[in-house]
Amino acid sequence: MFPSPSAMNFSMPKRTGFVAPAPIEINSSSYFMACTIGGTLACGLTHWLVTPLDLVKTRLQVNKSLYTGIFNGWGTVFKSGGIKALYTGGIPTIIGYSLQGAAKYGFYDYFKYKYSEIVGEENAAKYKTLLYLSSSASAEVIADVLLCPLEALKVKAQTSTTPFAPSFLAGVNKVVASEGVSGFYKGLTPLWLRQVPYTMVKFATFETTVNMIYKNVMTKPKHEYNKTEQLGVTFAAGYIAGIFCAIVSHPADVLVSKLNNASKAEGQSTGQLATKILKDLGIRGVWVGLGPRIVMIGTLTALQWFIYDTYKVQAGLPASGSVEPVKQKN
């Protein structure tokens, strides 16, 4: 006979082998990897999105009479080649800044943790601005080594009003054939001069601004605000940081554009070429294109921090900003 219902086992089978993912521990290897991934997404995507603005800004730095302004530049470029022309240099941009972002954000939190260990918790808290500055500078030195070859290729493509090369790989081969591998790194020192101060201001100003907002405007503890509110603070602090970044790094940005566009005379070193360019530009010349760059860098920096923190929040981590005690690894 059939067994009675009470004798039958109607219970759902137990799930075996399933383990809920553990939360990411602050300052663990998983945490630094999350920062690296977030930085890749933040820098690569944002720099690619503003390529049309970067294109006009870079060309005006090399030849200030080329366009009468941003909109005139966009219109002129669009008429000559459509949307594709506006994104000239887009491929080296997204590759180069993805690599740079990975190193910049990943190593920043790594160095911040390591330097805090070296000086001790009390000194790290007491001299936190110095901690932000030293950590961001160390991270950017590494990041720029990765960025430099792609930045050189991007600038060559953008400063050429006729197509520099038919493809990304063709551009790489053209530089190697004419200048050798060293041609990709002749702008490394000016790039450091541009990016290291930029990043130091970017991280220190951002962290300080976040602290000030939570202290003076949003006075509850940070963890009591929801994700949307925390990300709003991130965006506002990022834009403020971006304005300062643009001003501090602009002269070196002009030099990088000029240097990668110029041809060295026989026997002339990169330093000699840079000195000549700066002499020709004069004090006023190194500030050409500052307005467009403030708009670009302000927007760029705000979006970068927003994307970076959005990724961190989705990964179960708090938004950036040292407003609460940092957890140390056991």
UniProtKB/TrEMBL annotation:
Coiled-coil segments, which residues? none
The Solcar repeat units are at: 30-114, 127-212, 229-314
Q: Where in the cell is it found?
A: Mitochondrion inner membrane
Cite the InterPro entries for this sequence: MCP_dom_sf, MCP_transmembrane, SLC25A3/Pic2/Mir1-like
Q: Which GO terms describe its cellular component?
A: mitochondrial inner membrane
Domain of life of the source: Eukaryota
**Membrane topology per the record?**
Multi-pass membrane protein
Q: Which keywords does UniProt give here?
A: Membrane, Mitochondrion, Mitochondrion inner membrane, Repeat, Transit peptide, Transmembrane, Transmembrane helix, Transport
The Gene Ontology biological process terms listed for this entry are: mitochondrial phosphate ion transmembrane transport
Q: Which GO terms describe its molecular function?
A: phosphate transmembrane transporter activity
For this chain, the family text in UniProt reads:
Belongs to the mitochondrial carrier (TC 2.A.29) family.
Q: What is this protein called?
A: Mitochondrial phosphate carrier protein
